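Question: does this match?
>
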Amino acid sequence: MASEDVSSQKYPAKAHFKNVANYLAKHNHIGPDSGAVLYVESAHSRVWPNCDQEAPFRQSRYFYYLTGCELPDCYVVYDIQKQMSTLFIPPVVEDEVIWSGLPLGPEEAMEQYDVDDVRTSNDVNPFINGQDVPKKKIFAIDKLVSNHITFLNFDEKDLTHLKEAIDECRVVKDAYEIALTRKANDISKVAHCSVLKAAKQAKNERELAAIFVEKCSAQGSTNQAYSPIVASGTDAATLHYVKNDKAINSGTLNLLLDAGGEYDCYASDITRTFPINGKFTKESKEIYELVLHMQQTCMSRLKPGVHWDEVHHLAHKIAIEGLLKLGILQGNPDEIEKNRISTAFFPHGLGHYLGMDTHDTGGHANYSDADSMFRYLRVRRELPAGSIITVEPGIYFCRFIIEPFLEDPDRAKFINKDVLEKYWSVGGVRIEDDVLITEDGFENLTQVPSELNEIEALMNE
């Protein structure tokens, strides 16, 4: 499905409900004649404390996956045996109409969303506890059930397995979801390229952040998938730098832009690093070429069934080889790997699942892993066809991370301090693309230029 075809079709909510029900059945949480229902709430509208100003709204991804509905203060109930979904939307409140206009009505909602019935939200409790809903078992998500909702008439309540089921089902995207992600990438490509073209004239990081957000919004991506990272100079060594307000001057070598627009709740996540003056210095070029080699080699290994741990490990091996060649590291490569010296320069995971959340569900991360090479790896499993994963290697020169290595004689012997001194000003280089795992390999959904000569050419147009 092409991204331009998405707007003419409904979000496939019924198929997603069936996926979740099948997962629950496969894992023996329901039987063939279960008499079970699923219950999920949307995010709720709220105001800032001590005033009447509405806080920004972000839809619950669990609710959106099962409805495609972006409205606040909604509810959905799914009868597994009947395969019937009922959406509950806010009713008309006369006092609110003068301020906000008429809300979406049930008839309009039926036309817009892939559900079997639409009612207003004041009918939720009577419906759940009425005769038309089976009472054997209800599945809901813990801490995502409003206080006024009651499940008293059900024989069994399961507040654990619905979240797990949705998390796992979200890993494999259908054609509609892939098209939304592709659209988000297409929008972000325009924004990234616009920043590249404007960078040489920028005097402050915030100017480039503003360009990115404006270009996304103008194309229909009114929300960012996450707060943009516009990190110049040595701040590029801070992985999630978000100040975006530092002055850019002649002494600033590079800028790292990690930013992605969101389209209909589906994220893009793209990073490019480029020279502020349009031409990489010798040291910056060397690090950029190493990171690009890490990314391209790792990406070439992607296919269904490959274990992400193995691809991440490969990235570290390439990093060690490259840093040895540059003289930053010294000694035996096997000993360098054994002592995890490469984590001083490449401290994060190679990538993460991407979907409605930037760091999407189902990765099975283990942040308590004793092995520092894998501790921050957000995906610890084989990649299935239909999953979307970011491939984002990086090399960073962060004093806070590297200096403890230099102070430890057992690790310092692997790092050449004199050579390292020439690279501190590089800051950090990360290159990140969004990659779809296909039945026979992969497809890179990100089409922002990444070759060194392409970056420099675009900046000097």
About this structure: The mean pLDDT is 96.
